[in-house]
Amino acid sequence: MIMGRPTQQGGAGNWLLGTIALFILTVGLGLWFYSRHPVGRPLAAPGTHPTPTVKTSSKPLPGAVITPEAERKALRKKLFGAAKKPKPKDIADIAREARKSLPRIKARYKNGLPVGQKLFVTTSVDDPQGRSEKLSVRVTEWRPNSIVGVIARQPLILTAMHQGDRMEIAERDVIDWTISMPDGSEQGNAVGKFIESHAARTVSH
């Protein structure tokens, strides 16, 4: 009995050492596994690549407030480039040339335009609130230094004025003139054509 006791103690010691070794091996495998697959990252299916985790922030950048109108402007700028308005100096030059030809148009009107032709003049009108709008006026009478006519289209800004209202314009205040033909074509309208061509060039670029 005395000789068998060391054998039992040795067996118990071996069992304890084996248990410790198994525990260390299990912990080591666990650490290795989690190092390859961190908590929070989904495991990929066999034969596929794991999807990379992208961190996002719900906090907006300082000053980065994007409105629908800003998005539309950015899209228009990307598609057509930044819209540029004609320079006032350019428009003034075109209007000056149109006024130079006004005596010739006055003579044509006084002599009588062919049937179906209509004469329009363009002028800029300001209201007491400081708002301004360019109006097209169909000529009904040409006096020595002024033109009488009716507003051809409903104003969009000066809403106190209406299509068909009668008004008198000093010759010096005429910006442009247009003669419309029965077939839909026109003569003159230099300022209007300049603005349209400038807009077309802006969009094309």
Features:
alpha+beta
What is the secondary structure topology, with strand pairs?
Layout: H1 5-36, H2 68-80, H3 88-100, H4 102-111, E1 118-126, E2 132-142, E3 146-151, E4 166-170, E5 174-180, E6 186-188, H5 190-204
Antiparallel strand pairs: 1-2, 1-5, 2-3, 3-4, 5-6
Provide structural commentary.
The structure is a single chain. With 205 residues, the chain is of the alpha+beta class. The protein has helices at 5-36, 68-80, 88-100, 102-111, 190-204, and strands at residues 118-126, 132-142, 146-151, 166-170, 174-180, 186-188. The protein has a 6-stranded antiparallel β-sheet with strand order 4-3-2-1-5-6. The chain is rod-shaped, with a radius of gyration of 43 Å. The chain starts with a helix and ends with a helix.
Stretches with pLDDT under 50, minimum 5 residues: 1-7, 40-44, 49-64
Form type: rod-shaped
Percent strand equals: 15-25%
Distance between the termini: 106 Å
The main β sheet shows up as: 6 strands, antiparallel
| Estimated structural class | alpha+beta
Average per-residue pLDDT, rounded, comes to: 76
- H and E string: HHHHEEEEEEH
State the helicity in percent bands.
40-55%
The number of distinct helices, counting runs of at least 4 residues, comes to: 5
Strands, count: 6
Largest sheet, spatial ordering of strands: 4-3-2-1-5-6
**CA radius of gyration:** 43 Å
Q: What's this entry about, in short?
A:
This protein has 205 residues and is of the alpha+beta class. 40% of the residues lie in helices and 20% in strands. The protein contains five helices and six strands, in the order ααααββββββα.
